[in-house]
């Protein structure tokens, strides 16, 4: 039976379960308790996760089975979410409670106002201006990938005393994580919905672009790249973004960044760049291409990760219970932000 929600009405058992639980994905994670009954975990009014009986849901997995799946999926996600993990670790996030129940995030872009006045007695009439606001929508799509087990596979695992083979789960988690990372970097097609568009670092229209010298060019040395990086930083300064910055580079740069800065030098090119003021580090990202270099001001007015739902796995049955289906999914969306004047603290350096 198809599962979808249209005009607030559920069609299919999965959609019905979600609507009955206010779109909480935990409703699709039933497990068999020690007493043999089915349970789901839900947040109570104090924000604590508690077990509740699942009267209309037949659980297939034990709680330990879910732990094995979740541990494998989280491990893979951390490996692939290098940039997204970086900005999350810095607290550049915006959490949306019950993100499954929302399709867009509406935010405002605010203009600046004039400088303060300076006078001896404070009687001078200063400009009485107000900031201007503009509304923007950010789509909140679900990034997801499916896998499944037959009921016989689960029974064989349980009767044999061996854990489930999590290879399929790890592959699904890898695909979801890679899609989230590529979306943040602008290495997948921009996604449009509800009058809004999701952009990443390399395709945001208001990013600053700068032409750098390729390391394969004649006469290139470590100081050439250093000069390019300082020029990119100045581009950001010129539009009133003063850092702190972090630099992200394509893998093709590694062999040059980890070489000596000068002949017989005791530091590498990477280490020399790290010594620049307002530069917090240089990191290689797998999905940047060519000789791309991205300089990002690591503040929430430039970039943040919108978290409608962290990467999770849900389950439902089909074919009369003979097949147990799983979906790894998450709502983790990059929000690249420009001010009212379309200025942004991202500088994209490339050779073309």
Task: Briefly characterize the structure.
The chain has 352 residues and is α+β, with helices and mostly antiparallel strands. Helices cover 26% and strands 30% of the residues.
Give a description of the structure:
The protein has 8 helices and 18 strands. A hairpin with a 5-residue loop joins strand 4 (38-43) and strand 5 (49-53). It is globular, with a radius of gyration of 25 Å. The chain has a 5-stranded mixed beta sheet with strand order 12-18-15-13-14. Among the domains are: 1-59, no CATH class; 208-302 and 344-350, hypothetical protein PF0899 domain (hypothetical protein PF0899 fold, 2-Layer Sandwich). Helix 2 (63-80) runs parallel beside helix 5 (167-185). By secondary structure, it is an alpha+beta fold. The relative contact order is 0.17.
CATH architecture of the domain at 208-302 and 344-350: 2-Layer Sandwich
Q: What's the helix-strand series? A: EEHEEEHHEEEEHHEEEHEHHEEEEE
Structure classification:
alpha+beta
CATH superfamily of the domain at 208-302 and 344-350: hypothetical protein PF0899 domain
């Amino acid at each position: 039976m198809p599962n979808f929600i249209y005009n607030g009405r559920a069609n299919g058992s999965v959609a019905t379960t979600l609507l009955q639980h206010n779109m909480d994905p935990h409703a699709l994670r039933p497990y068999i308790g020690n007493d043999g009954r089915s349970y789901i975990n839900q947040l109570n009014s104090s924000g604590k996760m508690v077990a509740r009986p699942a009267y209309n849901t037949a659980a297939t997995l034990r709680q330990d089975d879910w732990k094995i799946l979740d541990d494998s999926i989280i491990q893979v996600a951390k490996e692939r979410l290098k940039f997204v993990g970086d900005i999350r670790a810095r607290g550049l996030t915006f959490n949306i409670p019950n993100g499954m129940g929302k399709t867009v995030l509406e935010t405002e872009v605010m203009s600046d106002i004039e400088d303060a006045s300076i006078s001896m007695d404070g009687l001078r009439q200063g400009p009485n201006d107000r900031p201007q606001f503009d509304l923007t929508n950010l789509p909140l799509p679900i990034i997801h990938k499916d896998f499944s087990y037959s009921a016989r596979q689960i029974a064989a695992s349980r009767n044999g005393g061996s854990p489930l083979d999590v290879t399929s789960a790890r592959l699904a988690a890898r695909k979801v994580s890679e899609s989230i990372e590529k979306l943040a970097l602008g290495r997948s097609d921009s996604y449009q919905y509800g009058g809004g568009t999701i952009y990443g670092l390399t395709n945001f229209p208001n990013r600053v672009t700068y032409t750098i010298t390729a390391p394969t060019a004649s006469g290139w040395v470590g100081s050439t790249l250093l000069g390019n990086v300082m020029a990119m930083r100045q581009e950001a300064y010129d539009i009133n973004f003063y850092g702190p910055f972090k630099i992200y580079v394509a893998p093709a740069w590694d062999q040059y960044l980890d070489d000596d800065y000068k002949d017989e030098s005791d530091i590498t090119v990477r280490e020399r760049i790290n010594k620049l003021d307002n530069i917090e580090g240089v990191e290689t990202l797998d999905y940047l291409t060519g000789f791309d270099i991205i300089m990002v001001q690591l503040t929430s007015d430039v970039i943040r990760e919108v978290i409608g739902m962290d990467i999770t796995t849900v389950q439902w049955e089909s074919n009369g219970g003979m097949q147990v289906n799983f979906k790894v999914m998450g709502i983790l969306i990059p929000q690249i932000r420009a001010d009212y004047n379309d200025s942004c603290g991202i500088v994209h350096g490339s050779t073309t």
